[in-house]
Amino acid sequence: MALPKAYRLKSRRDFQAVFREGIRCHSSHFTLRALKPSRSKEPSLDTAPATTQVNGNKNLASTQIGISISTKVSKRAVVRNRIKRQITGALYQLLPKLSPGWRLVLIVKPKSAESECVSQQFLQELEQLLAKAEVINGHS
After folding, report:
1. Model pLDDT for residues 85-122, shown as the tens digit of each residue
2. Which of 34, 45, 88, 97 is the most exposed place for a label (fewest CB within 10 A)?
3. Do the Cβ atoms of 85 and 1 come closer than 8 Å?
4. Residue 29: which of 124, 122, 135 has the closest Cα?
5. How would you classify residue 10: left for phi > 0, otherwise alpha for psi between -120 and 50, otherwise beta?
6. Do residues 40 and 112 touch, judged by C-beta distance below 8 A?
7. Contact between 29 and 111 (Cβ < 8 Å)
8. Is the pTM of this model over 0.90?
9. Distance between CA atoms of 115 and 29, rounded to whole angstroms?
């Protein structure tokens, strides 16, 4: 099950912006790149219009998330897709807690395929990473 369209980071330009300007947080299975919402910039024209959420009197687009998993994690697409599905399932539970307007790229480390990590571990680790980057509501 994929993330809803409003929450997907799709364009190459957006991925590059996150990698160029975003902050980094590391854990044992993931690296999180997070780009804070800028209230002055317009969203890129490449992406589909995201749903807006009202936060006080400011309108911000919903948080967009991209998952990057290379062939270094596993040569087998089946393994990479399974890991991606587990991450997406964990992110579904965290979506209501996320602050609006962020652009996130989650990079999967090769250790993820070796350790046979389960979804519950992914959820816990993602929640810690998002709190460290101050993306979860109540931290920003």
Report:
1. 989 988 999 999 999 999 999 999 988 877 666 778 88
2. 45
3. yes
4. 122
5. alpha
6. no
7. yes
8. no
9. 9
